[in-house]
UniProtKB/TrEMBL annotation:
<dbReference type="InterPro" id="IPR014710">
    <property type="entry name" value="RmlC-like_jellyroll"/>
</dbReference>
<dbReference type="InterPro" id="IPR053146">
    <property type="entry name" value="QDO-like"/>
</dbReference>
<dbReference type="InterPro" id="IPR011051">
    <property type="entry name" value="RmlC_Cupin_sf"/>
</dbReference>
<dbReference type="InterPro" id="IPR013096">
    <property type="entry name" value="Cupin_2"/>
</dbReference>
<dbReference type="Pfam" id="PF07883">
    <property type="entry name" value="Cupin_2"/>
</dbReference>
<feature type="domain" description="Cupin type-2">
    <location>
        <begin position="61"/>
        <end position="119"/>
    </location>
</feature>
<protein>
    <submittedName>
        <fullName>Quercetin 2,3-dioxygenase</fullName>
    </submittedName>
</protein>
Length: 186
């Protein structure tokens, strides 16, 4: 039996729109969105956790570096279940780190720290968790990207309209840093 809910984000979702309700979601069947070349799947978010954390996956092909950004109020976790992802992070003192994470590896990004990542192997998957005093940002993916019912990667990259970069990110605690330079060599 599959239960579907109407939410303020979607006409149909397997995620209940309110906290305090147990639920189960089969692999890949959360709320999905395409953004650039990646598929983001949300399994739990602010509505279910009283804005304490979110839980999502990102799957994608080998590709370009996701632009540098920071989250002023959100801590973010990168756990790699498949493939390889290169994580770039700058701490609050300006020291930069670069680490290739492979299956089973973990990366932690404190709030306010610029970071970016690049998927290094096709069919890589990141499990992400984000939490912080400002709420959660999981709905960023479908509001900057495009919601999808598809289970796979986008057939063509979904590149948002330029004006959405100025409006959507701030609402979800994402600050793009277009002039940020990585000095780590990766």
């Amino acid at each position: 039996m599959t239960i579907e809910f109407a939410t303020r984000y979607r006409q149909s979702s397997r995620i209940p729109p309110e906290p305090g309700r147990p639920y189960f979601i089969e692999k890949g069947m959360g709320d999905r969105a395409h953004l650039f070349t990646d598929l983001f799947t949300i399994y739990a978010g602010g509505e279910q956790t009283e804005n304490t954390f979110n839980f999502f996956t990102c799957e994608g092909p080998k590709g370009d570096t996701i632009p540098a950004h920071s989250h002023p109020d959100t801590y973010e976790v990168f756990y790699i279940t498949d493939g390889a992802v290169r994580l770039f992070v700058e701490d609050l003192a300006g020291e930069q780190y670069e680490k290739l994470l492979t299956s089973g590896d973990f990366g932690f990004v404190p709030k306010n720290c610029p970071h970016a990542y690049r998927i290094e192997r096709h069919h890589s998957r990141i499990v992400g968790v984000a939490a912080g005093p400002g709420g959660t940002f999981e709905r960023f993916f479908e509001n900057l990207g495009t919601p999808t019912a598809e289970l796979g990667l986008p057939q063509e990259p979904f590149v948002p309209e330029p004006h959405t970069f100025a409006t959507v990110p701030r609402q979800y605690d994402v600050r793009f840093l277009p002039d940020h330079q990585w000095r780590t060599g990766g």
